Amino acid sequence: MTDLIKQQLKDGVLTLTIDRPDKLNALNNAMYTRLADLLLAADEDEQAGVIILTGGPSCFTSGNDLVDFLQHPPTHLDAPAFRLMKVVIHLQKPLIAAVCGAAIGIGTTVLLHCDQVLVTRNAKLRMPFVNIGLCPEFGASLLLPRRLGHARAARLLLLGDGLDGNDAVNWGIANEAFDDGEQCLAAAEKIARRLLALPQQALRQSRQLLKQATLPELEATLREENTLFIQRLNTEEAKTALNALLNRNTDKHPSKGNQP
């Protein structure tokens, strides 16, 4: 199988690129496993100082590959997507997201764990979990209300409303918005270079201090969310909603079977 997660290590910056354009960078179980493995390796690699996560200049990720998701749903807390979440929240090195275009589901929730988030103005952030009979994941039910307040978090998590790049900056999910993908990627590289120029031990200890107070609560929230997520998948309303979405997407885009 072709490697759908590209990696490039250049002068201390490791760039991980989701590379599945024919599926709008939809993530399957093999890709979750690959991402988790690469992040774990980066944490141990002295040559990698900062990590950039991107989907390239056009699309970040459209979320779960629904065909793979329905055929191989998570059934335990060590499922590939859940394992990736654990790896990300325990990551020791700075993580920058360069988000161009769609960032659906986990494509948005992962941003809550990044140290810097750069977006294009046409980015589309959306977490339609309730819309498909599921519940929030990746600690979003804890982190979003704290960052945005309950009312705004509810608009995103309960109603499934979306944000463009400018909204993401104004709401505090992203740092800066850019006119196109190339500018966004270049800005991510620039910030990575600034981070690399700093005293590295001080940087990592300071990053740990920023995150450590929330970590125990976040770990507990992940366990609860993921347990409920598995339970929700076995409900009739989730099965009905997911199959309806898959059929709708297949009718519109026969080559794409992922989240909206």
Automatic annotation (TrEMBL):
Entry EC number(s): 4.2.1.17
A GO term for molecular function: enoyl-CoA hydratase activity
Pfam families, per database record: ECH_1
Catalytic EC class: lyase
Keyword terms, alphabetized: Isomerase, Lyase, Peroxisome
Subcellular location, record wording: Peroxisome
Database matches in InterPro entries: ClpP/crotonase-like_dom_sf, ECH/Chromodomain_protein, Enoyl-CoA_hydra/iso
Domain of life: Bacteria
Protein name according to UniProt: Enoyl-CoA hydratase
PANTHER family: ENOYL-COA DELTA ISOMERASE 2, PTHR43684
SUPFAM superfamilies from the UniProt entry: ClpP/crotonase (SSF52096)
Keyword RNA-binding: no
